[in-house]
Design a protein that fits this description.
There is one protein chain. This protein has 4 helices and 9 strands; from the N terminus they run E-H-H-E-E-E-E-E-H-H-E-E-E. By secondary structure, the chain is of the alpha+beta class. Strands 1, 2, 3, 4, 5, 6, 7, 8 and 9 form a 9-stranded antiparallel sheet that branches. Strand 5 and strand 6 form a beta hairpin. Helix 3 packs across helix 4. The chain starts with 5 loop residues before the first strand and ends in a 10-residue tail after the last strand. The protein binds a DNA duplex (13 and 13 nucleotides) through strand 4, strand 5 and helix 4.
Length: about 210
DNA sequence: CGAATGATCGGCT
DNA sequence: GCCGATCATTCGA
């Protein structure tokens, strides 16, 4: 915990196993810096989307559109899309170029510059609603679809992932079915959602 | 070109 | 617990 924060290197994101990378992301920090203001939170909940063979993925069957083309970029890019016309959902692209894997960040424990996050969310009081959920955490960090395609390994990237030295015990990580993917037939039951058990910053199932 | 649809959220009952 | 918001994207005509 005392370790100096280091940005995760490219090799963290280019692996083939998106489930393993998803688990490894738990406990890392998602950081943004816009107009000189940093905000950050500890990742406590993620979901894996494995391109070609996953019916829940926007890249199922290698579907390639203007929106999804960034999913085919090298691991470490940001895939951000608009959901329900309102919410900007933030994903991290993984795997080598051409393999459309992605990890959706669904829950964050706010850590850096909470007052600014509260302001962006139009909230007065700190409560899980601030960053528990993929749409709200993007709002709290100032992330919008305008940043989709960003290479988070670029030196001047406004969004990046940090390792602050915390070790998360595997036994504290719970797996379960992904949220909101009922349309994905047999893939809907795959337990590709990972989260820290009993953590208040994990999004609530509806 | 038109219609349908979401990897959700917050307010209201 | 339910329901409406709200629009980029996608697909089919």
């Amino acid at each position: 915990m005392d370790k100096k924060p280091t940005r995760l290197g490219r090799e963290f994101f280019t692996g083939e196993d998106v489930l393993k990378i998803s688990r490894s992301l738990i406990g890392k920090y998602l950081v943004t810096r816009f107009e000189g203001q940093e905000t950050a939170g500890r990742i406590v909940e993620v979901e894996a989307y494995r391109g070609p063979d996953d019916k829940a993925s926007h890249a199922y069957g290698l579907r390639y559109t203007n929106r999804t083309q960034v999913m085919y970029a090298e691991g470490g890019h940001a895939y951000i899309y608009l959901c329900y016309g309102i919410h900007h959902l933030f994903n991290i692209v993984t795997a080598r170029e051409g393999v459309p894997h992605a990890i959706l960040i669904r829950g964050l424990e706010p850590t850096d510059n909470v007052p600014l996050m509260l302001r962006r969310r139009n909230m007065k009081k700190l409560q899980p609603r601030l960053t528990a959920g993929p749409g709200v955490l993007s709002q709290a960090l100032g992330i919008t679809t305008a940043y989709s395609g960003t290479d988070m390994l670029a030196a001047d990237s406004p969004i990046w992932i940090e390792d602050r030295g915390a070790i998360i015990d595997e036994s504290d990580i719970q797996a379960g079915p992904r949220i909101g993917v009922d349309y994905a037939e047999e893939c809907a039951s795959w337990e590709w959602r990972f989260y820290i058990r009993s953590n208040p910053w994990v999004s609530r199932a509806r």
